[in-house]
């Protein structure tokens, strides 16, 4: 408690300023606790800072006796006014029942805009080859239960892609005699050619869909474009029916980190949107995505976010070659994101892709991860960092797919399918004419493109320590303390 005139104890002190009545007469100010006594000059400092009140009390003791009630009534933050979205005619909030009965709350301004007349599941001609999950829906739907007791097969949540990857991938891995393949399947030359073909198709479809992005178009319309372009290439859109995903492409807008389901919401000038396209052709899958600005009013921070997400992917690609541990990529990605003032999601990761849509290896996008295995010629996998403006942790919409940032701030992502060759890496889903950008100056001090930066730093500091020891007794002690601390930091970085 504070006193506007210097009173510091619970005495009634001087009377508070009188209030003017309706007829100009003055009435004494009463205690804010409702005790019926006249208020003194003791005022709640918190209420004063918040601009609420007036909150004058008759005594310190009276104030303290009902302080919890006072806090609840006067200090609680004002209820956040929910953003009102003007739903287009013929659409409704897809989660109105969840909001009404389960307390679901959107984290940002994006809404699930569902047509009143549901759009049926899209179909394909019979001659198009389908992946097994498109014909074995009942078997796949039971994956969570069947693999819940298997080490590494525990699904963390219905929308947890990593859990799905392991749970689904282990079905084939049970029959693999070669233990090395558990670190990532190695393809033969014929299989690699099949991957090149489906990845080329994937790039074509993504570029066609991206050309349609504009304010006013709905993601259901983009979904129709992707579906038809897949059919033209005798390909199956991999997301359709994958663990009950209902559409042919993932469309992630603004605060959606990944796995957004196309709906009837028209894109708005100032949005950003990620299109995640995957095709199945000739027995193999491709997987790629990119984030695009919508219109000309995108905030600069979101444009910077898009550029950072692409830079993170490019620098991770630069590291890829035989022998590089998969866990090294995450450190470089997080280093760049942090240097730009952003964060990287730690739940979702890159993955192996071949005859299986998602399989090993897992490729996390953050430092200190525990991914196993090293890159080998013939392996195909994705890198797909999800970079966030604010908090990297996600929550999910009731559809059990759409992952959104908890703080409602934007997220951006880029993805390519890669092949490790004898001499380096080939980007199978690269755009025509694309080349890896020239290496710029390090994004942050101590950066390393090959994962050896920590070791070099440690050796440099050891030399510094030795030189300091030769300079004299007093200097040696000082250098020794600094050197030991630096060496410890170097060891921590290597770990």
Which SSEs are present, and which pair or pack?
Elements lengths: L1 E2 L15 E2 L5 E2 L14 E2 L1 H6 L5 E2 L2 H6 L1 H9 L15 E3 L2 H6 L11 E3 L16 H4 L1 H5 L1 H5 L13 H13 L15 H23 L7 H14 L3 E2 L12 E4 L2 E3 L13 E10 L2 E10 L6 H20 L7 H13 L3 E2 L5 E3 L6 E5 L16 E4 L2 E3 L5 E3 L6 E3 L5 E3 L2 E5 L4 E3 L25 H17 L3 H22 L1
Antiparallel strand pairs: 1-4, 2-3, 4-5, 6-7, 8-11, 9-11, 10-19, 11-12, 13-17, 14-15, 16-21, 17-20, 18-19, 21-22
InterPro entries: Creatinase/aminopeptidase-like, Pept_M24, Pept_M24_MAP, Pept_M24A_MAP1, Zfn-C6H2
Cofactor: Co(2+); Zn(2+); Mn(2+); Fe(2+)
EC number: 3.4.11.18
What would you note in describing this structure?
The chain is of the alpha+beta class. The protein has three domains: 2-75, no CATH class; 91-427, Creatine Amidinohydrolase; 453-494. Helices cover 33% and strands 16% of the residues. The protein has 14 helices and 22 strands. Strands 8, 9, 11 and 12 form a four-stranded antiparallel sheet that branches. A hairpin with a 2-residue loop joins strand 11 and strand 12 (284-293). Helix 9 packs antiparallel against helix 10 (219-232). The longest helix has 23 residues, at 189-211. The two termini are 50 Å apart.
How many domains, in number, for the residues?
3
Alpha-carbon distance between the termini?
50 Å
Percent helix among the residues?
25-40%
Number of strands: 22
Poorly predicted regions are 1-17, 148-179, 441-495
Fourth-tier CATH superfamily name of the largest domain: Creatinase/methionine aminopeptidase superfamily
- Broad shape: elongated
Cα-atom Rg, whole angstroms?
30 Å
Q: How would you state the average pLDDT, rounded?
A: 81
Strand fraction: 15-25%
- CATH topology descriptor of the largest domain: Creatine Amidinohydrolase
Largest sheet: 4 strands, antiparallel
User: Number of helix segments?
Assistant: 14
Structural class: alpha+beta
Overall CATH class of the largest domain: Alpha Beta
The CATH architecture assignment of the largest domain turns out to be Alpha-Beta Complex
């Amino acid at each position: 408690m504070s006193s506007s005139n210097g009173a510091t104890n619970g005495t009634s002190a001087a009377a508070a300023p009188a209030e003017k009545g309706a007829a100009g007469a003055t009435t004494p100010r009463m205690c804010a606790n409702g005790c019926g006594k006249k208020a003194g000059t003791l005022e709640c400092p918190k209420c004063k800072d918040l601009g609420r009140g007036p909150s004058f009390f008759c005594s310190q003791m009276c104030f303290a006796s009902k302080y919890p009630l006072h806090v609840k009534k006067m200090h609680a933050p004002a209820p956040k006014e929910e953003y009102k979205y003007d739903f287009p005619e013929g659409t409704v909030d897809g989660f109105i029942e969840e909001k009404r009965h389960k307390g679901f709350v959107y984290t940002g301004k994006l809404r699930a805009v569902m047509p009143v007349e549901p759009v049926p599941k899209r179909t394909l001609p019979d001659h198009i080859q389908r992946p097994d999950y498109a014909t074995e829906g009942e078997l796949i739907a039971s994956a969570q239960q069947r693999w819940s007791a298997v080490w590494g097969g525990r699904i963390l949540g219905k929308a947890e892609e990593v859990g799905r990857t392991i749970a689904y991938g282990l079905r084939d891995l049970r029959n693999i005699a070669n233990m090395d393949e558990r670190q990532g399947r190695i393809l033969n030359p014929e299989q690699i050619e099949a991957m090149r073909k489906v990845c080329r198709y994937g790039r074509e479809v993504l570029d066609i869909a991206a050309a349609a992005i504009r304010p006013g178009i709905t993601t259901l319309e983009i979904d129709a474009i992707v579906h038809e372009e897949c059919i033209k290439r005798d390909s199956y859109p991999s997301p359709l029916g994958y663990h009950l995903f209902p559409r042919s492409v993932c469309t992630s807008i603004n605060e959606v980190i990944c796995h957004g389901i196309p709906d009837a919401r028209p894109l708005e000038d100032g949005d950003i949107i990620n299109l995640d396209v995957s095709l199945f052709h000739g027995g193999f899958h491709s997987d790629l995505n990119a984030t695009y600005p919508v219109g000309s009013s995108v905030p600069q921070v979101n444009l910077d976010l898009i550029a950072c997400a692409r830079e993170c992917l490019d620098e991770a690609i630069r590291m890829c070659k035989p022998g590089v541990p998969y866990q090294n990529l995450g450190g470089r990605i997080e280093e760049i994101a942090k240097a730009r003032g952003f964060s990287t999601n730690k739940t979702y990761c890159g993955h192996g892709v071949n005859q299986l849509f998602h399989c090993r290896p897992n490729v996390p996008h953050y430092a200190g991860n525990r991914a196993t295995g090293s890159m080998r010629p013939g392996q195909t996998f994705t890198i797909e960092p999800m970079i966030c403006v604010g908090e990297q942790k996600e929550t999910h919409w009731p559809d059990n797919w759409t992952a959104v940032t908890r703080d409602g701030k934007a997220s951006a992502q880029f993805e390519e399918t890669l092949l490790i060759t004898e001499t380096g890496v080939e980007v199978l889903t690269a755009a025509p004419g694309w080349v890896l950008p020239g290496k710029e100056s390090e994004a942050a001090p101590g950066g390393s493109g090959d994962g050896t930066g920590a070791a070099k730093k440690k050796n440099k500091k050891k030399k510094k320590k030795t030189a300091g020891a030769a300079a004299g007794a007093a200097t040696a002690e000082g250098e020794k303390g600094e050197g030991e601390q630096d060496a410890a930091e170097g060891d921590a970085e290597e770990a």
